[in-house]
Each structure stands twice: as C-alpha cells, then as structure tokens.
Amino acid sequence: MAQLNIEALKARLGIDLAHVPYKGAGPAVQAVVAGEAGVTIASPAAVLGFVRDGRLRALVIGARSRSALLPDVPTLAEAGADDDTLVPTYFAFALPAGTPRPIAERLHEAMKHALAAPGVAQRLDAAGLEPTGGTGEALRELVRRDIPRFRKIIQDIGIQPE
User: Fold this and answer.
1) Contact 22/31 with Cβ under 8 angstroms?
2) d(CA 116, CA 121)
3) Percent of all residues in the chain with a pLDDT value above 70, rounded to a whole number
4) CB neighbours of 103 closer than 8 A, spacing ≥ 6?
C-alpha cells in the first residue's frame, strides 16, 4: 500500500520521486530519519515519536479528520488534495467462506468485546488506529466499493500487471 500511495502521490501531484523498497514501515521511517530517503508514507504510530522529537516533519495525514495524536497536521483535503490522492488502508478480520454462521457470529461478538475493552481502545488510540467495528456484510460492501476505486487509481497511475 505504501508503494501504491507513493505512486498515486507522484501522479496526482506531478512530482518526481524514486521508489526505494523497504521491508516495512519501520525500516522506511528509519531511512527517512537517517537521511537515506526523502519521504515516506506511514501510520501515525510509526512516525509519532520522531515527529514529536523533531526528527521528522509530518506534512499531511491521510484521514478524513485530523488526528488527535497530531492535531496540527492538516488532512489531505485541507491541503487541497482529492479523496483519491491516497488509497485508504484498513485492517479486517476474515474467515474462510465456508465458516458456519454461528462461529462467525461468535467471533464477531468476541472481537467487538475485545475492541471495546479500555486497554485495547487506549492502545489503538495511541497507535493512531481508529476501530470502526461493523458487520461482515458491511466489510464486504466496503471491499466491493473499493475494488473499482483502487483499480481506477492503479490504471490512472499507469501500473501494469506483471
């Protein structure tokens, strides 16, 4: 997703950046801190400490609203970018398609309970993650809606399948 988002930024903003692959957000953020790379896209959790101590400067946040963790950092929309400048990233729990409905429902209830636990909620907030919950049907609809959106962004950018 980070590479796709860098490519989307390049295309949408007309800037020239060379993609340098790293094995995850941690090494990519470290490379920017060390001056080996000029920019990265990462979660607030990955950059928060470096932003707070002045080793990184957060330019924008790719969310619909400002982050409570970085309240002075504008959103992409506030900076004048459209919704498709970055591809949204989300995490979900999924089960095999044939999982019996009672098992899926029990796991869903357990996840809702876990996400509502104060310690879990605090840790997610501290990491800049915003649990939204929802149903399997809502997740399927989100994915169905996002596939054509992601496809269009990929086509607009000119990424060719290998």
Assistant:
1) yes
2) 6
3) 98
4) 95
Residues 6+ apart with CB under 8 A from 78: 60, 66
* Residue 74 DSSP class: P
**Amino acid residing at 17:** L
Q: Distance between alpha carbon 131 and the CA centroid of its chain, in Å? A: 12
In three-state secondary structure terms, 61 is strand
Do 110 and 63 form a contact (C-beta atoms < 8 A)? no
CA distance 92 to 47: 22
What predicted TM-score, i.e. pTM, was given to this entire model? 0.71
For residue range 63-107, list pLDDT tens digits in order.
888 888 889 999 988 988 876 677 777 788 888 989 999 999 999
Decide: 95 and 104 in contact? Cβ < 8 Å.
yes
Q: Which residue type sits at 72?
A: D
Task: Show the tokens assigned to 59.
Answer: 């330019």
pLDDT at position 51: 94
Superfamily of domain 2-157: Periplasmic binding protein-like II (3.40.190.10)
Which token pair is 99? 């999982």
φ, ψ of residue 125 to 5 degrees: the values are -60, -45
Phi, psi of 69 (to 5 degrees): -75, -30
